[in-house]
Amino acid sequence: MTDVCRFAPSTTGDAHPGTLLSALLVWLDARSRGARVGLRLEDLERERARPEWHAAIEHALAWLGLDWDETIVQSARGDAHDAALDALAAAGRLYPCACSRKDRAGGRRAPDGGWAYDNRCRERPIGTGGWRVAGEPLRVRLDDVRVVPVDEGGRDLAQTPALEMGDPIVRRRDGAVAYQLAVVVDDAAAGVTRVVRGHDLAPSTATQVLLQRLLGLPTPAYRHHLLLVEPGTGAKLAKLHGSVGHAALAAHLSRAELCGLLAHAVGLAATPAPVTPAELVAGFAWSRVRTDDVLVRWDGQRLTL
Question: Which are the contacts of 181, defined by CB distance < 8 A and separation ≥ 6?
Fold first, then answer.
C-alpha cells in the first residue's frame, strides 16, 4: 500500500524558515519513499487566519520547489467536522465548559508547558437543542487510560491525556471546530498513514490517538522532527512572534540558496551550497537529520543557521 503523508500549515501569516523546513522534511520523507503527499491549509482560527495567506503560503512552498498531490482547505470540511461532533454527542462524550486559561493557571503543568485542565465540568450536560446551539466551548470526555504512541524517532509520546492534558476542547466559543478534532478527522478522510511534524506538536499525539479510537479512525505512524528556534528565548519560530517571512527571504536569497542553508543546518548537506529539494531526494534518510533544535538569526539581509 502506498503511504499518504501531509503538510498542514496554519494560514495565519507568511511562511517563515521553520514553516519551509518542516514542509521540506515532510516532502522529502514522502518523495524518498514514493508516497503521496498533500497540502492541507489549516484556516479554522477565525481571529487570525486570513484568505490572503492561503495564496502566500502556497506560493512560498512552490517557490522553494515543493509540489503536492492534493491541496485541501480545512474550512471547506465543515460537514465532516460536524459529523464527528454528532458521533461524539451520540456517545455522550461532549460537555460544555467555559473555563478559561486564567481559571487553570497555578494548577498542574501539562506536557506542552501550559496549564492542564482538571476536567471539572465533565458532569455538565449539553442541554436542550444539542451541541449546535451551545454557546460555550465544548470538550470531549476522554477515557482515563494511558496511551503509548510510537514515534519513529524514539521520542517518548506516552501519556494519560485525560489526566496530564485534560479533556480537549473540540468546538470553540466562536463555533469553529478546534485543532485536536479537526486534525484527526481530516487525516483520516485523506487516508493519511504518516504524520511528520515538529516536536512542538508531540504532546498532542496521545490525545489525538484517543480521539481516533472514539471515532473508530485509524492511527497513522508518527515522526516528530527538530525545530528552528529564536535567539535569546529558544522559542520556536512562529508567525505570531513576527518571524521573518518568505517575502523578505526571497528578496535576498534564491530558492536554491535557502534550500541549501536549510539542508546543511539539519545535516542533509555537507555544505550550505545551493541545492534544490529534488536533488536531495536520493540521499534523504532520517538517520542524517539532526534531532536537536537549530538556532536561527536574521539580520535583515542574511539568514544564519
Answer: 81, 84, 85, 140, 168, 170, 171, 211
Q: What is the pLDDT of residues 119-164, one digit of tens each?
A: 999 999 998 899 999 989 999 999 999 999 999 999 999 999 999 9
Phi, psi of 293 (to 5 degrees): -65, 155
| DSSP helix/strand/coil, 42 | strand
For residue 178, what is the DSSP state? Answer: P
Angstrom distance (rounded) from CA 119 to CA 26: 35
Q: How far apart are the first and last CA of the chain?
A: 38
Per the listing, cell 541549501 goes with 260
The total number of structural domains in the chain stands at: 1
Domain assignment present for 176: yes
CATH of the domain at 89: 3.40.50.620
Mention every residue, 6+ apart, whose C-beta is less than 8 A from residue 188: 212, 215, 217, 218
What are the angstrom distances between the C-alpha of 295 and each of 228, 238, 262, 277? Answer: 6, 13, 12, 22
Residue at 199 is within a domain: no
Tally of CB atoms within 10 A around 41? 22
Cell (9 digits) for 146? 494511558
User: Tens digit of pLDDT for each residue in 283-304?
Assistant: 999 999 999 999 998 888 888 8
Structural domain span for residue 175: 79-187
In whole angstroms, give the CA distance from residue 256 to residue 248: 15
Backbone phi, then psi, for 36, in 5-degree steps? Answer: -80, 150
